[in-house]
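Structure ticket #2291
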Amino acid sequence: MFYCNLLGAISTIGSQLSLFAMTALSISRLQNIGSLVSKDPNTPSARIKLASLFFILCLLSTVIAVFPLLSSYEDYFVNGLHYNKVPIFSGIVKKDTHKSVFKTYYGRFRDKDLSWKMIREMSEGMFYKTLWRYSRYNCWFLWQR
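Resolution: structure written out below.
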């Protein structure tokens, strides 16, 4: 799963860099057309500006690509969990399905918004009691394996 996340992050970084580069070049072109004085792009200050712009674009692209993969923000970006070899949960299981199963299994259950961390802990409690061995993985977007 790590390699899949890594490939997705690299792909997103490349797409964002391409988008930001086209935007920056368009803005630069508009400024040069509007300026009456020709500017020399080979001056040290122009090179420093270009290098700093490149660094900022790379940093911004990396943040956009990696931010959704951080575990502290998974409640905003994870759509569901997929369990292997668990007959109760089939396909990608969203929070509402987990809630209804937990209400049935645990009996009294407060209807509140659950985090994915809490859902994992509660589902592990269910499955360890029944001695099911299972594996699960996050689904950031709706896709099937």
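Closing remark: The first helix runs from residue 2 to 34.
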